[in-house]
Design brief:
Layout lengths: L2 E2 L8 E3 L2 E3 L12 E15 L20 E14 L3 E9 L1 H6 L10 E9 L5 E10 L19 H4 L4 E10 L5 E8 L15 E11 L2 E11 L8 E12 L4 E13 L6 E14 L4 E12 L13 E15 L2 E12 L4 E3 L3 E3 L1 E12 L1
Antiparallel strand pairs: 1-4, 2-3, 4-5, 4-21, 5-6, 6-7, 7-8, 8-9, 9-10, 10-11, 11-12, 12-13, 13-14, 14-15, 15-16, 16-17, 17-18, 18-21, 19-20
Length: 365
């Protein structure tokens, strides 16, 4: 629940034998704000290819369990915000954590966010933040109510949800421009890859000309492998969100990545794209449709056993209903169709298609 710390400061002066307060000497500072957010998302998903291990295809990292009721993400988040300092700490658990934090050691798996920021200018919006942060890449996050669809797109699941490092960010006086430069431990990493000598980096540029339009361009450059397997990765992410009316909105994004080939000259590349249209019938109900495409012929991000790699189109339709202000029920049907047979059917054969139905119930308070 939101809380406030009392930080009103008054200076006193002593005049003769009595204490008097000078109006000119009174200084009122912005009160630091402490807020908490608790979130639990329970889901049930059914994959019509019926994977024998009850795990959806390996490129699916959110809502990835089949034919069982489970927790995608449960976390408690606390944030502190004052005039010149801010901090966030979020502890998380769920199948999203199991899948996305699998490479992290020990208790680090439970840290969804842990960062502190210091304002470097008294008058300008220049901040230095450091720690475990939400990724600067993409328009979808692990926090489902902030996303227009129940499940994430292929491009979101296969680019960083979180990052660790330091970020120098600037917001213009009119709030329309945001610019940031980052030094990172790697591609979705808390702890850097062992024997990796070089940090990674990134940039972000966001333009928000009005409350209806957001345009964003983010980059990543780095090496996410040990020095003995060094391969430079360069990644670009571009997206826009357009709330065309109070009821109808569009979000579209495209990712393009390049990585040096290890055993031959040249570069491997991959591409992801998605477009989502959402219509809000009322404050309680909304319908969203998504089309997406992902191409990774060399298997840099999504390896396959086929010579043509991963070349897949997807479509989904999603219905939302707010049972109460803090309780959201969602249902989604999703279909993938690949150029090659890359989807396992009951663990017995490979086929070109994959279909799934998912429903979730979440509370955020």
């Amino acid at each position: 629940m939101p809380g406030m710390l009392n930080s009103v400061v008054a200076k006193s002066q002593i005049s003769g034998a009595a204490d008097t307060f000078s109006a000119e000497a009174k200084k009122v500072e912005k009160k630091p704000l402490i807020e908490f957010l608790r979130h639990i998302e329970v889901y049930y998903g059914y994959d019509f290819n019926q994977p024998p291990n009850n795990t959806r295809p390996p490129f699916v990292y959110s809502h990835n369990r089949h034919n069982e009721v489970n927790i995608n993400l449960a976390y408690i988040k606390g944030s502190y915000s004052a005039e010149r300092v801010r901090a966030t700490l979020a502890i998380a658990a769920g199948t999203y954590v199991n899948a996305n934090y699998a490479a992290e050691p020990g208790v680090l798996k439970s840290l969804n966010e842990a960062n502190v920021g210091v304002k470097l200018s008294g008058k300008k919006g220049l901040w230095l933040d450091a720690g475990i942060m939400v990724s600067h890449i993409g328009f979808e996050s692990a926090y489902s109510p902030a996303c227009w669809t129940l499940t994430r797109s292929i491009m979101a699941d296969n680019s960083p949800y979180y990052e660790t490092g330091a970020k120098l960010g600037y917001t213009s006086d009119n709030g329309q421009w945001y610019m940031a430069a980052l030094v990172l431990n790697g591609w979705q990493r808390i702890q850097r890859v062992p024997t990796s000598s070089w940090p990674s980096g990134g940039t972000q540029l966001t333009y928000t000309p009005s409350d209806r339009v957001t345009l964003n361009y983010s980059t990543y450059i780095g090496d996410d492998k040990p020095d003995s397997l060094s391969a430079l990765r360069i990644f670009h992410d571009l997206y826009g969100t357009f709330n065309l009316t109070d009821k109808f909105g569009l979000t579209s994004g495209i990712d393009f990545g390049m990585q040096e080939r290890l055993k031959q000259n040249g570069w491997s590349n991959w591409l992801g794209a998605a477009i989502i249209a959402r219509y809000k019938f009322s404050k309680k109900t909304a319908l969203a449709a998504r089309g997406e495409y992902y191409l990774d012929r060399d298997g840099v991000i999504i390896p396959t056993t086929t010579s043509d790699g991963f070349n897949t189109m997807g479509a989904s339709i999603n219905f939302d209903y707010y049972i109460m202000k803090v309780v959201l029920w969602r249902v989604e049907i999703k279909m993938y169709d690949s150029e090659d047979a890359v989807f396992s059917k009951e663990g017995k054969e490979l086929i070109h298609t994959n279909a799934a139905a998912t429903t979730s119930l979440s509370i955020s308070f």
